[in-house]
Design goal:
Shape: globular
Structural class: alpha+beta
Distance between the termini: 30 Å
Bound molecules: adenosine-5'-diphosphate, magnesium ion
CATH superfamily of the largest domain: ATP-grasp fold, B domain
Number of domains: 3
Order of helices and strands: EHEHEEEHHHEHEEHEEEHEHEEHH
Number of helices: 11
Strand order of the largest sheet: 12-11-10-13-14
Helix content: 25-40%
Largest sheet: 5 strands, antiparallel
Length: 329
């Protein structure tokens, strides 16, 4: 098998030069690897065509990027790989597109009766957003609808009145040029936050962890862009089995609801009223310090190289056995 690594960098630290190098080194222990770094679909297409000529059907793409040109969000890589008939790590292009749109994900969760915070979309800047805000009630949190990696999440994303809501929504339009997702803010004395990685091998591995806000130097208990940039995020293992079972169950149902494959990570938050799915990261960070690799090490003693090789191997097997499609569960 020949593994193709298409490098596409972002401001997200887990799609960095360092991460690509570590992944390439891990893969090279088991397979031949050819890599390319280009934002041009034609160049990448030529690269893959050459590999296919040389290696026939035995080409597999270890893909960890959404776009070839991440900065301009152009060249949707999973769709290109499917068009070029190259089996790739992770979910189908259709599922990846759902995960990139937090509102579409939440619609699916609502359909499947998986609890997620109440929300509305602020499609236009300013006004016209007052009524739904009153229906849900403050505090609310305002997020870009199509980002990830905590991009656009700041302490002032949590809003307590109409004026600060207006301001936060305008900021999303100004800085991110997209609608805002306005959500019920899950908070209170009994608030806890979790992240559950799913590695969908024949024996499914689950990596539930809790965000350890107590050991993080933050004023507000949220994972913001600042906490990601300054590497302030800390996780801990979950001690109580009942909570762990509940969040694992919700995460597996979320994984199925969006039709995910191979691996993903679900973010959840709970308070006195229950446990809620915030989002599913269809392509969660695979940097050495990302939640899923760290949790896989803590819970299953899988070191980084083993994890990367396992993901590749299981995905190759799945696609060889014909479980390729993106059909919704
Ligand atoms: N409805 C919410 N209630 C409370 N906190 C939230 C809510 N939505 C997001 N957050 C906080 O913001 C962080 C980032 O939000 P999330 O929806 O996971 O987006 P991202 O794709 O940026 O990770 C969460 O980890 C959580 O700390
Ligand atoms: Mg998240």
């Amino acid at each position: 098998m020949l593994v193709a690594l298409i490098k596409s960098y972002t401001e997200k630290p887990w799609r960095s030069l360092e991460t690509y190098q570590l992944i390439e080194d891990s893969l090279r222990e088991k397979w031949r690897v050819k890599s390319i770094s280009s934002e041009n679909p034609e160049t990448v297409c030529g690269f893959l065509a050459r590999l296919k000529r040389e290696y026939g059907e035995s080409v597999f793409a270890f893909n960890i990027a959404e776009y070839l040109d991440e900065k301009n969000k152009e060249g949707f890589l999973p769709a290109l790989l499917e068009e070029w008939n190259v089996p790739h790590l992770g979910s189908s292009a259709e599922t990846i597109a759902i995960g990139l749109d937090k509102a579409r994900t939440k619609e699916l969760l609502n359909e499947k009766q998986i609890p997620t915070p109440r929300y509305f979309i602020a499609n236009r800047e300013g006004s016209a957003i007052k009524y739904p805000a009153e229906r849900i009630g403050y505090p609310l949190i305002v997020k870009p609808i199509r980002e990830g990696g905590h991009i656009g999440i700041r302490e002032d994303s949590i809003v307590y009145d109409d004026a600060s809501l207006d301001k936060a929504v305008n900021r999303i339009f100004d800085n991110h040029n997209q609608p805002a997702l306005v959500e019920e803010y899950i908070t209170g004395a009994e608030m806890r936050e979790f992240s559950v990685g799913i590695i969908d091998s024949e024996i499914r591995l689950l990596t539930p962890v809790e965000i350890d806000y107590e050991s993080m130097d933050v004023r507000k208990a949220i994972l913001s862009y600042e906490t990601a940039q300054k590497d302030l995020e800390r996780i801990k293992l979950i001690q109580d089995g009942r909570t762990r079972d509940e969040i694992v169950d919700l995460s597996e149902r979320t994984f199925a609801a969006v039709g995910a494959h191979d691996y993903s990570r679900v973010d959840l938050r709970m308070n006195r009223t229950g446990c809620y799915v915030l989002e599913i990261n269809i392509m969660p960070g695979l940097g050495p310090h990302s939640f899923l690799p760290e949790a896989a090490k803590d819970l299953y003693a899988l070191d980084y190289n083993q994890l990367i090789q396992k993901l590749a191997e299981d995905s190759m097997k799945r696609q060889k056995n014909g479980r390729r499609g993106g059909a919704m569960a």
